[in-house]
Amino acid sequence: MARRRGPRGPDRRHANPVLAPAVVRFQEVAPRVSVGGGDRKEAAARTSYPARALQLPAAPAAPRLRPGRQDAAMAAVAVVAPEVLRECGCKGIRTCLICERQRGGDQPWQHQKTHRFIYYADTGWAVGAEESDFEGWAFPFPGVTLIEDFVTPAEEAEMVRLMDRDPWKLSQSGRRKQDYGPKVNFRKQKLKTAGFRGLPSFSREVVRRMGLYPVLEDFRPVEQCNLDYCPERGSAIDPHLDDTWLWGERLVSLNLLSPTVLSMSREAPGSLLLCLAPSGFPQAPVEGATAPGRSVPCREVEVAVPLPRRALLVLTRAARHQWKHAIHRRHIGARRVSATFRELSAEFGPSGRQRELGQELLQTSLSFQGRPT
Hints:
This protein is of the alpha+beta class. Among the domains are: 112-141 and 263-278 and 291-306, no CATH class; 143-259 and 308-372, Sandwich (Jelly Rolls), CATH 2.60.120. 16% of the residues lie in helices and 26% in strands. The protein has a nine-stranded mixed beta sheet with strand order 11-18-13-16-2-3-4-14-15. Strands 1-5-17-12-19-10-7-6 form an eight-stranded antiparallel beta sheet. Helix 2 (67-77) crosses helix 4 (153-165). The longest helix has 13 residues, at 153-165. The chain is globular and about 55 Å long. The N and C termini lie far apart (47 Å).
């Protein structure tokens, strides 16, 4: 297989990073796997798998999508009901377009990172944006795995249709949500299992398919959170790190209905060491393998990770624990639905202090009998 030449920065035709060529397309049929950093050797063993049809609930019967109706079905799930655009779930300092209009104010000012880098999933490097101070400079960005075309267009349309049969709850910053998981108080480190009946039935095949990839072979999720974004509400999510008391090493998210950008930032002191981006990147970049030539303060850097439609994203290691992730309002150009799956931390694992509770949560989750809690 010919190796793709390393990027010198985003193509000028792709000023919007949503459209940036972030993933190498190895085959036209099987899902594509792009792994950044040291995970590449593990993923190399298997890059394509036979797909199994998504198993959907038998009642009520879900009509199969004929080729002539597929586009209409996908357009239908992308429509936002008018009443959704009149209600707001924001609290505290967070706002959306609805409450900003009601209050007669503008979106609160947010600090913009000074230096922008674009993540290239086929190399595992973050490269300075074109026409920036660090154009042509790069650094390894490990811990990101991107599996393109994880579900088919018909599966995507049917999944969102089934989500829309259940109520969506208003959430912060213009989002709506559906939770399939235990009720958790992260501040007090307490949880309640009452009302939790597992992941939804239509996720059974999604979870099975995850296990076909080396990075997710032993991934057993105990929570699924669906988030609904739309530009009419000004949907976004602020930079944050997911909890580590309950949730484990891997965060897995399925991106549906439209492409977007995951923006990653780090508030740690110190600087990132940069290398001059070569004309051809190594297959498995290693930190420190190339002598650094420049540095940039961590707090001034934002890394844009383009997320294609129907792609599955896995965050581990530094990308999971050190870099905050966010979705900016400007990167929501159409309705977007994400389904995020989380596994248990070591404390709830076989050798953990709360292993019995962990086993109970797993048995309930993987029964796939859940409704939104």
